[in-house]
Design a protein that fits this description.
It contains 1 helix and 17 strands. The chain is mainly β and 234 residues long. The protein starts with a helix and ends with a strand. The chain has 2 domains: 33 residues; 197 residues, no CATH class. Keywords: Signal. This is Lipoprotein.
Length: 234
């Protein structure tokens, strides 16, 4: 069979093109799985606040129309901070957040007055006269969707991951405060989980925000700042 010059050129280029496309695909896969998973307990430092703000582990609520950078924060009348937009957190019975497993909280999850009872990750804190608490259940209490186990990855000191199961309970209600959301989206002000990690000391910082859909805090967003020491599972 006699090939034209054009055909021979195409045959020569095709393997190069295939190799280039394959290279692009492998690069994307590597980027998707960047970093090593940190499996263990992210032990939380207690939150502290002063006139300048807060350090350690804390939570802030952003009102609809506000932003993390510019504010529009909801003031918690039960906060003892000078700036009552900060609600500081104290580690619970597990010492903090565990990755690679769920921390679902007790059953029942609330007492008769609506105070949340989960106390493994953080001790319940008071928000507008009612205690709120954090858990990471395997099933979303609001939608019934199955949730993934919390995962945090370290890529040369830069943290990323997913905390989709991060759920706040308050006044007999549940609010998904994870990122990404259970449907995989980053709605509203929801931002990816990010942070820093020092391998020598184990010190970490994690931050993200998550917008609420429905209920009394529809379109409000929670901003979370966790700080402490990572302890690998044994």
């Amino acid at each position: 069979m006699k090939l034209s010059l054009r055909s021979m050129r195409l045959l020569a280029v095709t393997p190069l093109l295939a190799a280039a496309l394959a290279g692009c695909g492998s690069s994307d896969d590597e980027k998707e799985a960047a970093g090593e998973p940190l499996v263990g307990t992210f032990k939380l430092d207690p939150g502290h606040c002063d006139a300048k703000g807060a350090t350690g582990s804390y939570f802030r609520m952003i009102q609809p129309g506000g932003t993390v950078e510019k504010g529009g924060y909801f003031l918690n009348p039960d906060s003892k901070c000078p700036d009552q937009s900060f609600s500081v957190a104290v580690a619970g019975s597990d010492g903090g957040l565990r990755t690679g497993e769920f921390q679902p909280g007790p059953d029942p999850a609330f007492n008769k007055r609506g105070d949340a009872l989960a106390a493994q990750i953080t001790k319940p804190g008071t928000f507008t006269a009612i205690k709120f608490a954090i858990s990471t259940p395997s099933v979303d209490p609001g939608t019934g969707e199955k949730l993934p186990k919390p995962e945090i990855r370290n890529d040369d000191g830069e943290l990323s991951g997913q905390l989709t199961a991060w759920t706040a309970g308050w006044n007999n209600l549940y609010f998904n405060q994870g990122s990404p959301k259970p449907d995989g989206s980053t709605k509203g002000l929801t931002t990816p989980v990010s942070g820093t990690y020092d391998e020598e000391s184990g010190h970490f910082e994690l931050t993200w925000s998550s917008t609420i859909a429905g209920g009394p805090f529809d379109r409000f967003s929670g901003y979370w700042h966790l700080e402490g020491t990572f302890v690998p599972a044994t």
